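Notebook entry, cofactor series.
This is the third protein in the set we're modelling with a bound small molecule. For this one the ligand is S-adenosylmethionine. I'm keeping the input format identical across the series so the outputs can be compared line by line later. Sequence and SMILES below, as received.
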Amino acid sequence: MSNYVELFHRLDALLVSNCQFWQFMPFAERGFVWQQNPQFCQWLMSIDDSQLQLLSQDIHALTTALLPWIKDAEQLTQIAAEVSPLVRTERSVPQGFESGIPGRKWQQITAFNEVLPRLGLPWLEWCAGKGYLGRVLAVSHQQPVTSLEWQQQLCVDGEQAAKQLQLDINFVHSDAFSIESDTAIVQQQHAVALHACGDLHVSLLQRVAAKKGAAVSISPCCYHLIRQSHYQPMSAAAKTSALVLSKHDLRLPLQETVTAGNRVRQLRFVEVSFRLGFDLLQRELNQTDTYLAVPNVQKALLTQGFEAFCQWAAAKKGLDLPLNIDFEYWQRQGELRFAITERMELVRQLFRRPLEMWLVLDRACFLEEQGYNVVIGSFCDKPITPRNVLIHAERGDL
Ligand SMILES: C[S@@+](CC[C@H](N)C(=O)[O-])C[C@H]1O[C@@H](n2cnc3c(N)ncnc32)[C@H](O)[C@@H]1O
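Returned structure with ligand:
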């Protein structure tokens, strides 16, 4: 059993046995889902907002705080931290190459390039956008690049930039899921995908493996962008897992807590508590226990107060509001539910990186099964991009 398969099974067991702490939709629940553990709920409610902020930004503090309630907290955080930075080899890129590329994207691209081995193979850049990465690969490896992208304008812009920089880049305007795009994948090639979403990178890995492509390196993102209703495990290891992941579950790895200022936090409090309050009201009126999604709202409407919001939401949903509604009561209920929802989201944060690792390991195990030597690591620091995991695979017989 490889290290990755072993790690996958350990992580899988932890995620399965603790699924009551993360596999649910907080905003769809009326109250805490842990009613059978009232002390845990009381403790969560005793956390004030500044502590909540603190814990949501410090995984180690969160782990320690949750340890009395979730005995596997430490182990989960430890396993998720088993991604070490990949070794970077300095690769100089001529001046001017960064022109027109947003700062963070440039840092991601140079970091990605610097952790890739020099295999002397032509490159395939999957879901290339304007081919920013391809430009850097072309110049620092002196190998031709094929950049496949779906949006025509991005291909046009990318082609123009490549021409100006005199680079050997060929854009293929194609849907990555189409049969035709298959012809872009060949055996003697190093395929790369920087932040290709969900099924787009999954289908690349499957097709590279099917063609016994020499090497592939991806940094996955947007795990929830899949064509099926639920996650389709790739590896034999994940196929035996008891976990069935919905799109909502698959969003968890991307739910990074961003440090928002007071004003943004206050706006969010108003909007979300209004929505949750209205939802409780409609549950009462409709005699249902099902969450009712309400469309996006113009922020100006929120300044008109809860009642105006309810009138608007009811009209949108074709719901008749009786005249005797105690709007103050439902607003308070919404605010209380907001506090509960936030605390349930806080607990789910403990599982964010472990779930991402489960998904990354599924890809790594799949590639190993297909005859590849696989390395997982981080290619840059998290402030540059939270999606900083890179999976690199080379055929054993290369
Ligand atoms: C998140 S962007 C990443 C772009 C680039 N790799 C980067 O990191 O700058 C994803 C890219 O995938 C492209 N894309 C989306 N669906 C596609 C499809 N079905 N076939 C090919 N490209 C697709 C989008 O147009 C977009 O340029």
